Amino acid sequence: MRAALMRPLGQLAFIAAGHAISLAGLPGTRLSTNGFFDVQAHRGGRGNTIENTLPSFAWGLIDGATTLELDNGITKDGVVVVWHDENITDEKCKDTTPVTPNDPDFPYVGKFIANLTLAQLKTLDCGSKRLNNYPLQLTYPGTKISTLEELFDFAECADPAHQILWNIESKINAAHPNQTLGVDDFVEKQYALFTNSAYKSSITYQSFDWRTIIAMKKRDPSVTTSALIDYETASDHNNATTPWLGGLDLNLFPGPTFEQQVAQAARYIRADILSPAATGDSHVADPTMDGYVPFTTKVMVDEAHSLGLEIKPWTVNRQNIAERLLDWKVDGIISDYPNAVRRLVKQRNLPAAPKYPKQRVLACLDEHLARQRDS
């Protein structure tokens, strides 16, 4: 073991969101899944329905997801919206008309969300294009990008008992900070919406940018947080500190293996959940294929559990991977195909959340899509 690994964690300096903070006294928190294995619908279930839209979340409920996973960006005028990408891509959206005649920002496709107003975003059709990698996606032509508030309003209609859980990401780019708003903007605006919703106690706050996890725990220690990580964010490949981990160097943490150090670092920032990529960067997709390299391993799972962390890998779209993860006793699986993972969970005799009534959910979807069209 290198000498650096023996350095006491108390000597690590940590800066989050521009503020030096102490983490030692922060308690851990954990959401109840009501005893169900946590099947998470990634972006609502991207493999089945156009992603991060009201239709995708509706079908995530109908398919029996335990948790709806989604992403948040923030517009130029400070509105929290539900979208994954920092910019609007022509793969997923198409322009219709400018919000005002001769708008110099038009066309909006290709622009960053942080440089567009909500009114400009609302002109986009983000429901007509089926992604080539997801040929079974249902499309909903004319669907608009939703605000987080609009999504919560839809959920209250479809889920009046407030049973659904949420895993909401701050889509902030630590490597290119000029492409999104900053840490404080995300934490304060998202937290205000969480607090004003009926779902505050049902939300996990996740991020690849660990500064936002630290800042959210500082804002409210009771918020459940999840530390996202993969090879790209764990290292910049030059043995320098990666910007994604807020200044932390994984080499300074205990453990003879990289996997143990990842879990130790997540625990150090008082994350409640470690959410690693399921696979590595070998470009080999399946464990049965030569050259497959996992990112999540049994060593990582065991280390996370020994530290009191839950572990929920992403994005698991192969049953061969899901089966291994279940063998290793992960606490949840994030998938573009929550219906398929749920079937496997039931086959393993693990408790699965009930499906939401299709008729009610689709009626709520029709109502809320109509509201968006008329707004």
Task: Please explain how this structure is put together.
InterPro entries: GP_PDE_dom, PLC-like_Pdiesterase_TIM-brl. Residues 1-20 form the signal peptide. This is PLC-like phosphodiesterase. This protein has 375 residues and is of the alpha/beta class. Helices cover 29% and strands 13% of the residues. The chain is built from eleven helices and eleven strands. The chain has helices at 54-62, 118-121, 148-158, 183-196, 210-219, 231-234, 258-268, 298-306, 319-327, 338-347, 358-374, and strands at 15-16, 19-20, 38-42, 67-74, 80-82, 165-170, 203-207, 224-229, 273-276, 310-311, 332-335. Strand 7 (203-207), helix 5 and strand 8 (224-229) form a beta-alpha-beta unit. Helix 7 runs parallel beside helix 8 (298-306). The radius of gyration is 20 Å and the shape is globular. Mean pLDDT is 93; it is low at 1-27.
Task: Give keywords.
375 residues, alpha/beta, TIM Barrel, nine-stranded mixed beta sheet, 11 helices, phosphoric diester hydrolase activity, PLC-like phosphodiesterase, signal
